[in-house]
Write a structure and sequence with these properties.
By secondary structure, the chain is of the alpha+beta class. Helix content is 22%, strand content 34%. The chain is built from 7 helices and 20 strands. Strands 1, 2, 3, 4, 5, 17 and 20 form a 7-stranded mixed beta sheet that branches. β14 and β15 form a beta hairpin. α2 crosses α4. The longest helix is centred in the middle third of the chain and has 25 residues. It is globular, with a radius of gyration of 20 Å. The two termini are 23 Å apart.
Length: 353
């Protein structure tokens, strides 16, 4: 209980607000972070005969599998502990994850010294993905109280082989963030394997599933506070995001049941979360619904978004200098890094007396 009391006091900060009369007034706000992190092949060292986990990088190592696994988990936990902490003085209240093999590896994350005091709980379902990877949600028990969770299958067909193309489910979790009802959808859309154009239809299908989930939430409650976050394997200006989800870059253009994408402006300035052949992409995004955007801070509202990119997550030398310092490479195996993706986050604030 002592930890919970300390945690709550850390979320209070002061902003300078300009009132309509132009008088400057200091107000106190509570702040929480919602984040997403593709943790790049977080697999355990145990072969699962029901999955293709033997194709994962760690299972291809010749030796020291346990040592590598421990270091990988330590690295991921350290990063998670620091996302958004400069402003909130806390790790994320809620964080979506992708590229996790199972619940066990997430439990190992929560037990790391850098995270254990945060008392994270886990929501995870096994998905039918061919690589054996899933999405999941971690949340601090003191801050978030889930009331429902469900997994939603994306059914795809391989047109050439005329067989089922198995991919990740989309995870929907609803609950109360310090008293405010919110909904979080965790995504890891189909990759660009085989080329962007050839694989585009799969991500358009994922976007349509995501839109159905959002529409369903808004049908039940037009004022639903929704976060759709994840590795979309598309940039903010691709059709899956811009046309199907109709996500807007400009807050002023977001309709009543519309979606705002704070990452699009970042993308246009050259900011990214992952890179391929020397080019940055911003596949990792957090999209938010209209009710999170107004200036009534009596409940949690969007404050700002960011890409978490401290220098230690970036290669400082070699041919990949300036790009994400990943965990594994095909030639060298484990290289001691973190992930080939950078985390993203949003801060929410609520005024307090």
């Amino acid at each position: 209980m002592k930890h919970k009391i300390i945690s709550t006091t850390l979320f209070i900060f002061t902003l300078l607000v300009v009132t309509p009369s132009q008088a400057q007034e200091k107000k106190k706000y509570k702040i929480n972070t919602i984040a997403f992190y593709n943790v790049e092949n977080l697999f355990d060292t145990i072969n699962n005969p029901n999955k293709n986990d033997e194709a994962s990088p760690i299972m291809n190592l010749k030796s020291n599998l346990s040592r590598v696994y421990k270091k990988k988990v330590q690295n991921m936990a350290m990063v998670i502990s620091q996302i958004g902490s400069k402003e909130s003085e806390n790790s994320p209240a809620i964080i979506g994850l992708s590229e996790v093999e199972n619940k066990l590896v997430i439990e190992d994350l929560t037990k790391e010294p850098s995270l254990i005091s945060k008392d994270y709980a886990i929501i995870h379902f096994d998905s039918p993905d061919e690589r054996g990877i899933d999405v999941a949600l971690m949340y601090q028990k003191a801050l978030f109280k889930p009331i429902s969770s469900s997994t939603h299958e994306l059914k795809l067909m391989d047109k050439n082989r005329k067989t089922r193309d198995y991919t990740r489910d989309q995870l929907l979790v609803s609950g109360y963030l310090e008293g405010d009802l919110i909904h979080v959808i965790v995504n890891h859309w189909p990759s660009r394997s085989g080329g962007e154009e050839k694989s585009r239809s799969k991500r358009l299908a994922a976007a349509r599933l995501n839109k159905q989930l959002i529409d369903s939430l808004q049908s039940n409650d037009p004022y639903a506070k929704i976060f759709s976050l994840g590795d979309f394997n598309d940039n903010p200006d691709d059709n899956s995001i811009k046309k199907i989800l109709n996500a807007k870059e400009d807050i002023g253009l977001v309709d009543f049941k519309g979606i705002y994408n704070p990452m699009e402006t970042m993308y246009k300035t050259g900011l990214g979360t992952n890179a391929y052949k020397g080019t940055w992409f911003l596949f990792d995004q957090i999209l938010i619904s209209k009710p999170l955007l107004n200036n009534d801070f009596s409940s949690f509202k969007f404050y700002k978004a960011g890409v978490f990119n401290p220098s230690y997550l970036i290669n400082q030398q070699g041919p990949y200098k300036g790009f994400p310092y990943r965990s594994f490479t095909y030639k060298k195996g484990f290289i001691g890094g973190f992930s080939d993706h950078l985390p993203v986050y949003v801060h929410l604030i609520k005024e307090i007396d």
